[in-house]
Amino acid sequence: MSHYLEELKQLISTELNIPTSTLDAHQSLENFGIDSLTLAELLFKIEEHFSIIFPNFQEDDLSSLSKLAHIIEQTVMKKAA
Amino acid sequence: MKQRIAITGIGLVSPHGGDVNAVFDALVRGESAIRLWDDPDISPAVAAHVDFDPAPWFTRPQLSGADRVSQFAVAAADRALKDAALPEIADKERCGIYLGSGMGGAATIEAAYEAYFGARRSTPLSVVAFMCNAAASHISMRQQVTGPVMTYSVACASSAIAIGEAARAIALGEIDVAFAGGTEALLQPGVLQCWQAMKILATPDSNDPSHSCKPFSAERSGLVLAEGAAILLMESMEHAEKRGARIYAELVGYGVRSDAYHLTKPHVDGQVRAINAAMRDARLTPAQIGYCNAHGTATRLGDPTEAESIARVWGADLSKLRVGSTKSLHGHLLGAAGGIEAAITVMAVHKRLLPAHLGGRHDPDCALPLIGSQGEEAPHLKAAMSNSFAFGGTNVSLIFQRHKA
After folding, report:
1. For B290-339, what is each residue's pLDDT tens digit?
2. Are residues B79 and B159 in the same domain?
3. Catalytic, out of B239, B267, B332, B357
4. How many angstroms separate the CA atoms of B166 and B162, rounded?
5. Which of B76, B104, B121, B383 is deepest in the core (most CB within 10 A)?
6. In terms of domains, do B147 and B167 share one?
7. Same domain for B316 and B205
8. Is residue B247 part of a domain?
9. Which residues pair with B150 in a beta bridge?
């Protein structure tokens, strides 16, 4: 498991008060029962945390935590390059 | 039939703390909560901060998008409900929220500008956190209040107006219960600088910074900014008596009148109009009102104007009145000032005890029968008035009377 996924889980756990043990890599971000505004705020905090700006999301980018972790990793790499 | 208004609960988040009895006792003892503002980046200043932990009311995720001003309001509303010993509001559609705030979410506004001029990006929850009505909305969601949820932004008269308008809604029979008062949390460095630029803030007293606000004194140098929230739980007398509630006092008079004169300079005529309107509403004469919690901000122009207004209304009966400005102890809560001062006036009527007034050498241009630096007993007190006069020229007077005097 990438450290990005671990860090992402940790961040979501802190921000949404959800224990990391209950966070599943296949889980969709939209399944936490949060509204669109809270989701926007969470994505903002993820950007702040990793010092990145997300590219425009595609249809299923938020469909699992592992996909989002992958996007974070790619964005960080692109920025470093 | 016009309903009478009972004050049955008080909820505070104040520079003196959150327990209404402890706060009132501290005010009677003349204890000031004004302190030096500890920030090397700004000119010397004093302020009255609130020591506040939102944890009992907000989880970490809930804190996103809830500015300090809304956190104060939610806590104060909860405390008011508990103080009123009202376990549940039976008909939530017949309950309203009437809140005053001068600025809304100042910390969020300041952070948004800082982000804009820095990284040029702002958090998605900025707008909903700083809008002026956010605090009232947060209370409504917490308490599931589905009647009118209103916010009044009338500078320093905001929460006095909120209380008066809540009383009208109850009197007209539109609602039975109201949370009414105000909240303000603008002690941010950028906001402070704007206030300093107006040259109306108090100079810190070099001997005792806690004694920097000196209303009606020849040594006064300006107002002291403060923060906090104060919410009254108001009920129709019928609703309160039916459930056997403890009734602190009745709200019997509300007067709101304007100067139509100047944005910041007060005017005796407008203030007298408001005080007289409240007296007529209360069907009381000046001689029957024993205590006035003055607006008394300790500005150069404001104090003598209010002193003249009070003297004009009371006339020969002025010597029967006791006057004090508790802003000398808790500072100026701006949009929440009318709320906390109404709460203090209610407690004064209830306990027949008057809070102290920290002044100093008396200004002959402010010839008022002032309370001293220790509170006083008022065994015959029947009714009391609280004044709130706003930038913009809106003046409000509220009159509270002992229940079954």
Report:
1. 999 999 999 999 999 999 999 999 999 999 999 999 999 999 999 999 99
2. yes
3. B332
4. 6
5. B76
6. yes
7. no
8. no
9. B98
